[in-house]
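As the work plan foresaw, our protein records have gained a structure token line. A representative record is set out beneath this paragraph:
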Amino acid sequence: MPYAEVAIDAPAGRPTYSYGVPDRADVSPGQLVWVPFGPRTVRGVVVAVTPESSHETTRPITSISPDIVLSPRQLAIASFISSRYLCSLFPALALFLPPGVERQSEVVYELAESYGDSMAGLSGLESDLVRRVREQGRLTAARLRSGDDGAGVQTALASLVERGVLVRRELPHERRAGPRNEFIVYLTADAQHLTAERAALSKARASRQLQLVEHLIARGGSASSGELRATIHATPATLRALQSRGLVQLEERRVWRQTLSTCPTNPSPVPVLTSAQTAALEPIVAALDSGTFSEHLVFGVTGSGKTEVYLRAAGHALATGRQAICLVPEIALAAQTVERFVSRFPGRVALLHSGLTAGQQFDEWERVNRGNADIVVGPRSALFAPLHRPGLIVLDEEHEWTYKQDDVAPRYHARDVAREIARATGAVLLLGSATPDVGTYHRAVSGETQLLPLPDRIGSTVGLPPVEVVDMRDELRSGNSSLFSRALQSAIAETLSRQEQVLLFLNRRGTATLVQCRHCGHVFSCPRCSVALAHHAVRDRLVCHRCGYVAKIPELCPRCRSRNIRFLGIGTQRVAEQVKESFPSARVIRWDSDVPAIERGGSGLRDAVRGGHVDVVVGTQMVAKGHDFPGVTLVGVISADVGLGVPDYRSSERAFQLISQASGRAGRGVQPGRVVVQTYEPDNYVIQSAASHDYRAFYEAEIRYRREAYYPPFCSMVSLMYSHPDEDRCRREVERVHGTIVPEIESTDLRLTGPSPAFVRRLRGRYRWHLTLRGSRPGDVLADLGLPRGWVVDVDPASVA
């Protein structure tokens, strides 16, 4: 009997487990299977098939999914992810599985082979359950519990299993979306027969049948059954009647669900490249022609035409028989990008992201797997699309930390995984940004990545917009306590008078970021997280931005019973309200995560802005990333200091990127732009560098700090976070692990920081303490540490706060 080494979907102690292959079953590496694990049946992926088992006793594979097999390359990349990010193998393999295969197991009951026909000793309910199972051969627990006494049935089933009457099994339960089919109705009668039958139908007063025939004639002889139901309310009986008369026939066909990638669009004119674009494209084309791995950073200011370089590179990849992936940092940006690609490559683009319906995801994945689409656009998960000949991988806005998965394992960064995929396939990795990640730019300066500069805006005679830095301390001293400085207030009025658009950026949601009793100082905080509740005027509620807890606004302080409650701080809702008060005729929209996802993820908000139906956009980082709004000529950064005080070594980098990206939304059309940055720290190097559009100055200051403090890119970093409902136990566990690690790193270059409480000390009811390990190979120490449940290991964390 052959055996299969299977990576399983369970908190397992070993990378793989050995299972027997059933007789006459065809199992190969990469196959998705279901296997028993303890009392449950779980998913697994076959990693190897061997003649001997690696364990003394094995159980057989329960079932096999013959249509889902990962390729050797996908198995190798998953192994890299598992090793690089210190996670078990199955979650890494699951990244490559088709959408919707997160199938659940289903509990079923069967009669035990040793049980006869006797009902002696069984209660009435138990006898009834045994009889039902015997009649059907096998019944699900859900069907057996479908009566009024569900709890009693569950108790009886447990008793029958314990006494050996019934056998309880867990079997895989398929819940995947599938292809959509529809019937096409064709007229089959010749002209003479058709004329005679129409007359006969008219004489018989079969009006519904006659109407359907007339509709088919008007539609050129055919129409879908769905269209006939919707337009003339055709019924199956009507169709059967016409079939019996020999007038029509039905043919079933596959229908592909529509997404933005399959919507018809007008081809856009191909622009003439600038000299800088041409120079950037030449080494990319040469690398594509050579078929060997290379990495390039398109370092272009906002509006410099980076997307056109991506499009030309993708076109050349297709011309050489290869395929392309273009990743974007947000689902909201996928619509804008996919439209550009579809207009250039109609019928060849697939869109993959979690905002699609299950059926749409199924269809798009199938189009790619079948080779019907050879360009994939989407956020980080699109990197794992089943392209068979990838030749180009693009990460637009590569600096964005949404490319890092940090909520569940594997906590991978798409940039690093893309690099590994490109190496394995001989593809070109193209990174693009106006404000590159400090580590990426360091690689370019060091020669590991080729730097391709695009220093100027396309078609602009004035270049990047001038930035005015306003010292809000002076505003307060002059008696202006408004959200808007005098300069910004005046600039908004001037812009609206010219019928141009304004974008106001603030990276905080809500109306007030702090609600406090002014009598005793009590701050209203989340009962589950150690953060203050924010006030949202639209819902008139207090909201925790960490866990989503919602509470009514209290009339009295719970500590001192005072009514003197004040709302402090500002968020996007308050900014939008202030704009409406100051400029009543202005059409204002908010663009943040409080806006329904369907509005943000589609093209509704974007089309409203681009179509000129909005005067002022108030938004968070969602609106600062990569959007092209030609009508926006003024950008106001309400508070440039947000995020600067966070105790995280990346806080300065993030603040610079956000201010620069927001500023880059101004003046992208024919009219010149202007930016007003409000701050209480006008002399901070982050503010000064962003105001002068000087990435290099920011980089030089930041890289000196990173080198001196021994932070990435001069080392690797791993965060170890432990959480527990009891803080004392949480602290003791972190101290225990700290004591375990210290002896292991004494003769290495590794540095261990902590134990210390996390910046958000309590989250969703659990206290959090952490350790940080820095050095050349911190993962080597942690690989065999054997951390218990409650620990999260994050390699290259997005934040260490």
Summary: The chain has a mean pLDDT of 88. The CA atoms of residues 494 and 716 lie 49 Å apart. The chain has six domains: 105-173, 180-255, 275-454, 467-511+571-705, 512-569, 716-795.
